[in-house]
Amino acid sequence: MYPYRLALNPYPSSPTPTAEDTKVLGGSKHKSGKSAILSCIDDLASKLHENPSQKDFRLITVIQDVGSGKTHLAFHIRGLQQLSNKAAISYVDLAQIAPRSVESISGSILRGFSDTHLSEFRKEIILHLKSKINKNPKNVKKIFGYGLFDSITGKKIEERVKKCLNDPTFIPNPVALEDVLGDDFSPSEVQVLRQIVESRLKEGFGKDRTLEEAIDYFASLAKLTHRFMKKLTFIEIDEFDPDQEAMTLVKAIINAHLPATILMLILTPHSYEQIRNSNNSVFDRLEKANYKIDLAGSNTPEEILDIVSEYIKYHDSGKCFSVREETDLGAKVRVIYDEFQDFRNVRSMTNILYHATENASARNIFAIDEQALEDTIKGIYPGLRIRGSIMSVPVSEFIRIQKNYADLQTLESDVKAAVRDLVSHASITGKVAPLKNESNSNGLDVVYNDSSGMKVAVSVILNRGKASGPTIIPDFSSFSDVNKRVILTNSDLIQQKNHVRKSPIGAPLKMAETIVNIDRSRMADLLYFSNKYKNNQIKDEDLERALVLAKSIRIC
Question: What's the CA gap between 123 and 16, in Å, rounded?
Fold first, then answer.
């Protein structure tokens, strides 16, 4: 059993999405993209008549950086059961085609159609041929190999047709086939129909074809797909870039306005800019796309949290994944996102959660806990630690600290206690004199004498951020016996600089104020040290780190 009462690990483990993985789609950006694509399909389908024309063509562009889920979205669309009766979808990854040519790319488009679709297409064509028995009985019989012996033995042509339907190696009589189809279809359409009946469409349309012939072939295929299958032709081209051959074919497809066809181009902003610089004509067509889907923002923490939750919900057949569990998992994911820049994309985060889920399952834990995440990060990203941490705070401890200190008042109180513990530790090493009993009054949280004998006071003043306005520092001019005051704050609205306050009559006071900004990693260092200090868990390697920490916040 896996965490959250799941029968299997819900997260993908492969670097690129599989068909099974892409059944899940999370994130508002991806869902909006999906909605736009489905809207395009529905809009075009509603306008099609018996004979689609060049007006029945649409262009979609999907643009965003690597790892933003573009390919995932394309695979998800291709696998939607609701589209099985609306569109014949071909997916092409240009990154896998080498060398590129009009022939190789065209062949990949044909191979991109599913076997299920082509099998159904083949069946419809064979049944159409059989329906011509009354109009052209001689050639229809030749097509299906129905001869004199069959007639003598009493076999019906339906038996031959049934056998052909179930035999993908069936080869019809080519002359008879062209004679039966020639009255209703163009030579290019007859060629397409023959290739489908002979299960050879994925072999391509032959060598030494001109670009014009290639476009005519695709136009014929699109018309026939709509006529026989009542479906649109949907071509997804991934990793589109400024390759000359690719741009030539794509431009020709757009210019030809293939009937009953939607072309979706998937590319990065960098490739988009390169196309602008190398082929302004192609770029102009991309700019005029009917639908421009920009997945910008798909790697924000909110999007990633929605995606990782969606994987669990999709596989949670019993609907047992509670709001509390979702919130708890989200808090852990958010810490990883905030502290590790390498994990700020969907692919990296789902990889971590895949391994963390396996870890939790092996330990019989019913939820992904801090230890599972720490073990995962240590195992697959050895040497990685919390960014900026002096005390080498473990990931599990950092997650626990961030989770437990949502309340600012409690956090401020514990940071003050941690500073006192740090000064006490520094006094043991002789770096400062022992603590004085003047703290916890009038805003002075810690008071001690430094190594030079100067009296130092430390004040911890935390703020909720810019929304709360600037941090207000009380006036401490009455403490004439304090030589130096260190103000520890998390506010970004205070400049970090030394300055001297002046008395009302203009005479300078002895007390200098040093403002030190402590970010989340530094507060985690303080709280982690304090916890070890109180529990007598300070080890030899912690001693020097603690002194470095004290120096970093200007205590010694």
Answer: 34
Range(s) of the domain holding residue 543: 408-552
CA 77/CA 69 separation, integer angstroms? 12
Longest dimension (CA), the chain: 128
User: Is 94 in the same domain as 224?
Assistant: yes
Whole-angstrom distance, CA of residue 280 vs CA of residue 118: 37
User: Do residues 264 and 112 lie in contact, with contact meaning Cβ atoms separated by under 8 Å?
Assistant: no
Element (H, E) at 102: helix 102-111
Q: How far is CA 371 from CA 42, 43, 339, 523, in A?
A: 48, 50, 17, 21
Instruction: Identify whether 96 is part of a domain.
Output: yes
The reply to whether 151 falls in a domain is yes
Please name the residue that has the structure tokens 């052209």: 136
Domain boundary among 294, 328, 356: 294
d(CA 159, CA 144): 10
Length of the chain: 556
Neighbours of 118 (CB within 10 A): 18
Task: Report the 10 Å Cβ neighbour count for 51.
Answer: 11
- The distance of Cα 108 from the centroid of its chain, to the nearest Å, equals 25
Candidates 6, 200, 10, 245; CA nearest to 104 is: 245
Rg (CA), the chain: 35
Q: Cα(95)–Cα(107) distance, rounded to whole angstroms?
A: 14
Cβ neighbours for 282, distance < 8 A, ≥ 6 positions apart: 247, 250, 251, 275
Q: What is the pLDDT along the chain (556 residues), one digit of tens a residue?
A: 899 999 999 999 887 788 888 999 999 999 999 999 999 999 999 988 878 877 899 999 999 888 788 999 999 999 999 999 999 999 999 999 999 999 999 999 999 999 999 999 999 999 999 999 999 999 999 999 888 787 777 788 899 899 999 998 999 999 999 999 998 999 999 999 999 999 999 988 777 789 999 999 999 999 999 999 999 999 999 999 999 999 999 999 999 999 999 999 999 999 999 999 999 999 999 999 999 999 888 889 999 999 999 999 999 998 999 999 999 999 999 888 887 777 888 888 999 999 999 999 999 999 999 889 888 987 887 766 677 788 888 777 777 787 777 677 888 889 999 999 999 888 888 788 877 665 555 678 888 888 888 888 888 888 755 445 555 566 565 566 788 888 888 876 544 334 444 434 444 445 577 888 888 888 889 999 999 999 888 888 888 899 999 999 988 7
Does residue 162 belong to any structural domain of this protein?
Answer: yes
- Clarify whether residues 42 and 172 are in a common domain: yes
Residue keyed to tokens 């949280």? 445
Give the number of domains in the chain.
3
Packed helices 540-552 and 408-428: angle between N→C axes, nearest 10 degrees:
110
Distance of CA 82 to the CA centre of its chain: 23
Residue from 4, 22, 3 nearest 12 by CA: 22
Q: Which two tokens stand for residue 494?
A: 């205070």
Answer with the one of 342, 369, 384 that is the final residue of a domain: 384
- CB distance 214 to 222 below 8 Å: no
Give the Cα separation of 35 and 29 in Å (integer): 10
